[in-house]
């Protein structure tokens, strides 16, 4: 263990690269952010206006995702060090499309003298096109700088995660006053990805269904299904059916009047939740005469922080066994 960084008390010092999608910090940064997503191609004026309008609609210039992510990173660091005094954990942020980028997070760890690290993504489900991409970028930078790093690939069935999401479903069901539980359709959702992942035998769709089944079983929900949301406009087919289409279908075919949406693929309040669900899906539901409610986001929920703490600690120590 002589090659491992230790602090003044002789405990191992472990860097934790906490990765997420990223968000602009202000309206003025939206264009640069969107350009990065589009691999250096600036958006058209129409595309830029659409995205800017969405941010304006939910936050009026205040960007909750950045603050939420900052809070999650800090809460995870606190939880790791409270629960595991046998090591010192230092968390660093690495974002896919905003500063500090994933590569910046790796560089900062190395600059601080970190020699071993664990990477974890603020997304419970693995896809080669999402979590896999984060890991690839972090690993390449770590290899370049000589940093030993291992990764948490997924944690979609962690008991504390399932517990946290189940609590949210159960509390949201109480908003349908006077309505029997089996009369409320529970819709679990996640961010759609291009359909080509199916040809790659990607685990993403099945992991999402496994999470959904576990929550439904724990909450005693019998009427549920899965839907996709927030598909990109890229000219290639994305996974469906889309939530908005599902709402229209269940209204027409099942005469559904009460729908509870639980976005299991997202862990904090951001555009895909605050706009795509709270504004766009809610608007569609109202047009259809459906009472729609959404579960609270995880954000810094202690059970979610416990989930992340567990998987990071297990990965850190498994890597050295």
TrEMBL record:
What is the source species?
Paenibacillus filicis
Provide an example Pfam family for this protein.
Answer: Ferrochelatase
EC number(s) stated in the UniProt entry for this protein: 4.99.1.9
Top-level enzyme category: lyase
User: Where found, per UniProt?
Assistant: Cytoplasm
Recorded hits in HAMAP family, A to Z, give:
Ferrochelatase
Q: What is this protein called?
A: Coproporphyrin III ferrochelatase
* Amino-acid positions noted as binding Fe-coproporphyrin III in the UniProt annotation, renumbered to this chain: 21, 38, 54-55, 134
What SUPFAM superfamilies does the entry give? Answer: Chelatase (SSF53800)
- What reaction gets catalysed by this protein? Fe-coproporphyrin III + 2 H(+) = coproporphyrin III + Fe(2+)
Pathway in which this enzyme or protein is active: Porphyrin-containing compound metabolism; protoheme biosynthesis
What UniProt keywords apply to this chain's record, in alphabetical order?
Answer: Cytoplasm, Heme biosynthesis, Iron, Lyase, Metal-binding, Porphyrin biosynthesis
């Amino acid at each position: 263990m002589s090659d491992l960084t230790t602090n003044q008390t002789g405990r191992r010092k472990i860097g934790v690269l906490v990765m997420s999608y990223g968000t602009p910090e202000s309206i003025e940064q939206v264009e640069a952010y969107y350009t990065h997503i589009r691999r250096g191609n600036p958006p058209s004026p129409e595309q830029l206006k659409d995205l800017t309008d969405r941010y304006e609609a939910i936050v009026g210039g205040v960007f909750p995702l950045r603050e939420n992510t900052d809070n999650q990173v800090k809460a995870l660091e606190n939880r790791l060090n409270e629960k595991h005094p046998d090591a010192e954990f230092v968390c660093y942020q690495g974002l896919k499309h905003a500063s500090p980028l994933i590569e910046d997070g790796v560089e900062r760890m190395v600059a601080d003298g970190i020699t071993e690290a664990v990477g974890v993504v603020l997304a419970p489900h693995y896809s080669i096109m999402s979590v896999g991409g984060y890991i690839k970028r972090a690993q390449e930078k770590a290899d370049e700088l000589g940093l030993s790093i291992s990764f948490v690939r997924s944690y979609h069935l962690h008991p504390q995660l399932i517990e946290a999401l189940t609590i949210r479903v159960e509390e949201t069901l109480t908003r349908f006053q006077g309505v029997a539980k089996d009369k409320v359709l529970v819709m679990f959702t996640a961010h759609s990805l291009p359909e080509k992942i199916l040809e790659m035998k990607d685990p993403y769709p099945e992991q999402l269904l496994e999470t959904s089944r576990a929550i439904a079983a724990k909450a005693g929900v019998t009427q549920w299904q899965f839907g996709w949301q927030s598909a990109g406009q890229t000219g290639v087919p994305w996974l469906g059916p889309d939530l908005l289409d599902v709402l229209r279908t269940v209204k027409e075919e099942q005469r559904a009047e009460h729908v509870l949406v639980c976005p299991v693929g997202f862990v904090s309040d951001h555009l895909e939740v605050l706009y795509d669900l709270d504004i766009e899906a809610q608007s569609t539901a109202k047009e259809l005469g459906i009472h729609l409610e959404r579960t609270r986001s995880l954000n810094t929920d202690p059970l979610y922080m416990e989930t992340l703490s567990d998987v990071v600690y297990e990965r850190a120590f498994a890597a050295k066994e």
